[in-house]
Amino acid sequence: MGTKTVHTVSQKQRTIRENVSGYLFILPTVLFYTAFIGIPIFMTVFILSFSDFSLLSPLEFVGLTNFFKLFTDPDFKIVVFNTLKFICIIAPVHIILGLVLATLIDSVRSRFFQGFFRTVFYFPLVVTTASIVLVWGYLYDYNFGVFNWILSQFGIAPIRWLADTKWSLLSVALFSAWKFIGNAFLYYYIGLRNVPDVYLEAASIDGASKLQQFFHVKLPLLTPTLFFVITTTLINCFQMFDEPYFLTRGGPGVSSQTIAMHIYRKGFGEYHFGYASTLGLILFLIVLVVTIFMFAFQKKWVNYDSE
Amino acid sequence: MKKIKPNKIRNHSLSDQIGQTALVVCLTVIGILMLFPFFWAFSTSLRLPKDSFSLPPAFFPTEWRWENYAYIFKALPFGRYLINSIVVVVSIVAVSLLFSSMAAFSFAKLHFKGQNIMFIYIICGLMIPFQSIVVAQFLIVSRMNLIDTPLALILPYIANPFGIFLLRQFMAGIPNSYYDAAVIDGCNKFRIYWNVIIPMSVPSLVVVAFIQFIAQWNNFFAPLIYINSTEKFTLPMGMQTLKGFRSAGSLAYILAGVMISLVVPSVVYIIGQKHLIKGTLLSGLKS
User: Pick from A32, A190, A242: which is nearest to B285 by CB?
Assistant: First the structure.
């Protein structure tokens, strides 16, 4: 009995100590997180979205006015549609082409070439967007651009890539697809490296062709990666800002403006901070719904084979 | 078993060899297309400024005017931008790597009340688009009187939910026997963290450091909002001032500036990429 009491006391002390040290270790992160992310989330969701203020005018509660404004803001519908268009162009490129590239590179036998290709396809992701976008701006140039020069070699009339409302969104999407495909590619590549060789050998002994091996062995094992890539690609696309900002400033008009750019323009261009926060809340809700949707349906098709 | 071996050997021979060669050739062509903007920028940056717009576009350097590089380096405070960028990015990566790994250790190896709630609280940061909270964050940063200081670029990025998530995944995979053995040896929690868990987590630490380095090196939005004075610009903002050279019609100078700005991330990438693959493989991004 005596020893047992001693034991429980020390146990209790130990749990207290464990609790204290547990919190000490997360303390620095929690402090910074709360100051710069936690409180801003709280402010946006509960205060700013329902207020009207600018740098000079004080905060004023306006209820749901900002939310009604969404319906009268003629650009809001357009930027939401633009963002969806961007997703429809970029996401398939990243999700499908990234997988094709990763599969091809994974099946290169020479280690040297495999490493080389890996480096090449990931490289655009690494370089500063603000710099490389200057290069693309010139590639798209109407008079001297390389793209129009190539078209002219085939006798096709030049295109105003960035200045034509018909083309601006596509041009920005093309740049984004090029710049960020390395992300999806790398995750697929790593997923493929994790596929145990025994499975593939077993399949090839059974006479499965390379294509069959891909669809019946690799792809099912790759579904967790696929899930990860699709979810992060969608989330990233919804937050797209840099590419249209640099290439077209969202223009001409608002033809290539995204939700994220609209927030910036309303907040830091026109100083409608309250309305910008409401837009931010809407963007967050969209991302949240997409994430929940992805997680809710993952059981239907994602294969977590934890042996 | 005997039947399989010759089969495999034959597989590796002729038809397969041709397939491999075709694959390498194909990928090389795609790779060159991918890298084409870089080739073009490099060769055009070496041309005479007045020739930089002449067609056909340059695929290989036709001239080697390195003077363009010297000129743009003198014309723009590149050294300033570079130093600013390095100070900001290195501070973020160093401090946040320390704090993130501490938090990850706590979430992976310690048990405390409210652990799950705290974890979810921090992981929320992964789902919040930066633009959603940018107005609120701007108000806080300006209330702290940090506008137009490097700290405005550093402090908001110290907490790194992605890094914590990845490191926790990795540390959770380290067998508890290491932890228990260290406890028996009389190590306190900090020594276990520092002397046992951190050395074992180096690959995933490299991954987190690398991803954060690249993200912050390219961060354009934060300086766009927080920095006003030119001498405090980081490289991405500085690159925008290059556009001023457009009126002079000197594309070659602009592209020389672009090439200079690519040096640091390229070097970091080439050094880090091997570890990046290995570390991510080990981190088990499976779920």
Answer: A190
